[in-house]
Amino acid sequence: MKGKIRTILGDIDPSELGFTMAHEHVLDDPRVGGYMDSEHVLNDYEKAKEMLEVYKDAGGEAMAEASTKHWGRNTLGMAELSRETGVKLICCTGYLCENQVNMDEWIGNKTIEDLVEEMVKEVTEGMDGTGYKAGWIKAGTSYNYISRREEMVLRAAARTSKITGAPVHTHTSTGTMGLEQIAIMEEEGMDLNHFCIAHVSRNPDYWYHKKMLEKGVYLIYDGPGKPKYYTDEVLANVLRKLVNDGYGDRLMLSNDMGKRTHHTVYGYGPGLTYIKNKFIPRLEEEGFDPKDTHRFMYENPARFYTMYK
Ligand SMILES: [Zn+2]
Questions:
Q1: For residue 270, what pLDDT is reported?
Q2: Is residue 170, in this structure, part of any structural domain at all?
Q3: Average pLDDT, whole number, for the chain?
Q4: Of the residues 25, 83, 103, 252, which has the maximum number of CB atoms within 10 A of its CB?
């Protein structure tokens, strides 16, 4: 519904969303779609519940759950988790990129229109035969290229968005192909105020991020606390420049913790409290205005995830 955010338990007013991680995973099994890395299997309901309880205790209130059907999205489980913990989950329809889903099997000979039909149904009727609806549309591209079928998914995502009013949020591989994704969305006539690109922190290039933001899109930095890619210092410096350029209302933070080894409840880290308890205090200690960090976690996700139809 126009002006509402579509959580798994129903449409809510954006003012009710609260502190939100913009791209996370809590309950999935990607082996369903042909991605066989067992480290990515998050199929333990009790652990997922514990994750959300820890997050909630730290002040977390909502998250965009980024597991699609082929990533083994557990619709009934997520609805139950949200009901039990009170953490709002905004779930997704759509597809990831080629090496994360067996597209021969999952897309095969489907046309763009077939994909649109499937995605519209998940947003307007429900996912996996339930009445629990998706609140955003996912698409994704490979490292430094866009395959024919990835392009079909991007176009289907734009068309689904224009029909349903749900926002589109994409996966990038190592942060590449963002501008090329934008060009495809523009060809489809997508309003870029409802388009968001994730994983750009894997490619923390100020010039490149600014070029994308100039088009009106949102960006998600989901790499803090993962120094094997980039240190938090690198990410903080790019964020600071973008905020100084006036893009503070287009940036969101998350941790994209799709592996067991990202989660404290499995005995690892950084865990769902890292952004709230470590990264944001560090940004503020280094001079970020708390109004800006508040925008990253509250206002921007609430605006971006609002249905525009
Ligand atoms: Zn993810």
A1: 97
A2: yes
A3: 97
A4: 252
Ligand 1 centre to CA of 66 (Å) is 6
The one-letter code for the residue type at 155 is R
159: domain range? 7-304
CA of 173 to the centre of ligand 1 (A): 11
**Residue 217: inside a domain:** yes
- Contact between 50 and 26 under an 8 Å Cβ cutoff? The reply is no
Mean pLDDT of the 68-83 span: 97
- Classify residue 129: in a domain, yes or no: yes
* Rounded-to-integer distance, Cα 220 and Cα 171, Å: 10
Q: How far is the CA of 158 from the centre of ligand 1 (A)?
A: 20
Q: Cα(294) to centroid of ligand 1, in Å? A: 22
Domain CATH number, residue 77: 3.20.20.140
What is the tally of structural domains in the chain?
Answer: 1
pTM of the model: 0.98
Distance 199 CA to ligand 1 centre (A): 8
Q: How far is the CA of 88 from the centre of ligand 1 (A)?
A: 17
CA of 25 to the centre of ligand 1 (A): 6
148 C-alpha vs ligand 1 centroid, how far in Å? 22
- Output the CA 37–ligand 1 centroid distance in Å: 14
How sure is the predictor about 118, in pLDDT bands with cuts at 50, 70 and 90? very high
Alpha carbon of 21 to ligand 1 centroid (Å): 12
- Nearest one of 268, 257, 255 to 40, comparing CA atoms: 257
What are 195-230's pLDDT values in tens digits?
A: 999 999 999 999 999 999 999 999 999 999 999 999
